[in-house]
Amino acid sequence: MRIPAVLVAVITTILFAGCEHREGGHTTNPVVAVIPKGTSHEFWKTVHAGANEAGSKNDLEIIWKGPAREDDRDEQIKVVETFVARGVDAIVIAPLDDTALVPSLKEASGRGIPVIVFDSDIKWDGKTTFVATDNTRGGELAAREVGRLLDGKGRILVMRYVEGSASTMKREKGFLDTIASEYPGIEVVSSNQHGGATVEGCYKTAENLLAKYPDVDAVFGPCEPATFGLMKAIDDIDKEGTILLVGFDASDKLVEGLRDGKIAALVVQNPFAMGDLAVTAARSTIDGDDVPEFMDTGCTLITLENMDEPGNKELLNPPLDKWLNTK
Amino acid sequence: MIESNGRRVRLVPDLRQMLGPVLGLVLVIVIFGIIAPQSFLSVYNFKVVAAQSVIVGLGAIGMTFVITSGGIDLSVGSVIALASVLTALMMQQFDSPVVAIALGVGIGAVCGAVNGLVITGLRIVPFIATLGMFGIARGIAKYLAGEQKIDAPAGWIPELMAKEPSASWILVAPGVWITIVLGILMAILLNRTTFGTNTFAIGSNESTARLCGIQVRRTKILIYMLCGIFAGLAGVMQFGRLTVGDPTTALGKELDIIAAVVIGGASLAGGEGRISGALVGAVLMAFLANGCTHAGVPNYVQEIIIGIIIIAAVALDSYRHSGSR
Questions:
Q1: Quick check: A25 and B296 CB within 8 A?
Q2: Minimum Cα–Cα distance from B295: chain A residue
Q3: Which of A55, A284, A296, B21 is 20 to 30 A from residue B130's alpha carbon, by CA?
């Protein structure tokens, strides 16, 4: 009596599975599972494109799978477990959590699967390598640009992002340390305010900061929402171009702001290179070659003058179509 | 139990009724065995799926009582998160797994009891009452955790969910055995005791049950409390899996749990429910997810398939009912 129900389910399963181009087909190339923190953000799409490029360069089969939400630890663990059971040749992962993912990755490595960590670090030294942006260097880069723009003199402020976010804290530290050591003429009037994890929170904090210090010469935002909040707040008091804004990361809105002169410079990460380097490291590991413990994927300072140069244009608009439309 | 086909009270599940979910499970395994790489059929992968079924399975045991009584509990996912956070906090405080587990399960019981009291005392339909708890428990979990995950010493709790347990002769994670043993005990409770009979009776026809002298109020409070206890235990297992207390975990898990119970042959109209079927439903969904990852099929396909299976199972169930009358 229930058999028809089952039949319906079976037929649909076959239909779906059959129509779908399966990335994990039957080839002899080694299989590398690439597991992002989430699948919807632009950043991860760019990583995916880079991973696919490295896969085709290095004769690897890339399987891309991650949780839909960037806080779904359980789902990411499930993905890792299943790839371990499947027996892939390497796992490349951006862990959602520096602790929760450790047991399942340990198990992977215990079963002979090398683990390459990218983007965010993990509290475990069994990983083969860690591929990420050197965030401290990114902060230094921003600080030198501020120093150059202000000729080493002036008053600035930093609006921090979230308490406990490792990557942005490194950027803030790199920025502040460089200002303190290299630009004694620059005074930091405020560096203890956090914008919070939402765009709304960053905007509000930026408004409050600028209401208190309307005469600063430059501001630094350590990530996309902080930069966006600062840009809007400066725009509101008609000080665009007077208060110089140096930000971090790119989005369509920020690139537009750069073009309109609302932003003086952006420090941009390279997620394409992140996917590329991490997968290439997987190939080296599979081949038994040594890889360094840490690989910096680099940061680039983008200004109005250099934003249309070929390399930088690709950073702001990565070649997603070329590598993601392989189906 | 008031239907003409006689006693619904039995320990050995009716084979004919179990056929649907079990056959579905076997077919899922066979199909993925064909289209997925060989590793899908490995012993290790079966251990992985078994461990992955535990949280939904435990939740489904409790939910079977609620659905059989004609109710619904939407707060289970939030209660799992709250229990995992409390377990982590207690491990931080006392570093004693026994205390932490007791309190994790205990908070589940409290949430369930509150659900039952609100439903019976304020005369609010279960859907709304537990929707309230859905927000309340999630909010308290976030408050207790300071809106962050909690790093705590995990003691031996992760061992409960270890896919390869250190005592290798038990084959699968201890959590799997706990689920099976509790499943059998609860099947006895549901099918062989007055409490279980009353649960069926309330689900079949609440006013008749009341006329027959069943203490509907008390039974309902106990049913929701039982569901909360199992959600609390699932939360402890979630902590064991994550090794951190995560207030955002298990979002939407109650829907997976309800799906498992329904695939297993329960009727949302009440008066019908099988714990064995619900557990098979939980395993079936875990296998589907696992098989899709093995075969490299994207997540959305798996979501569509599960959706279709739920509708098909229920549609055929109601077809069968209309045919028997």
A1: yes
A2: A24
A3: B21
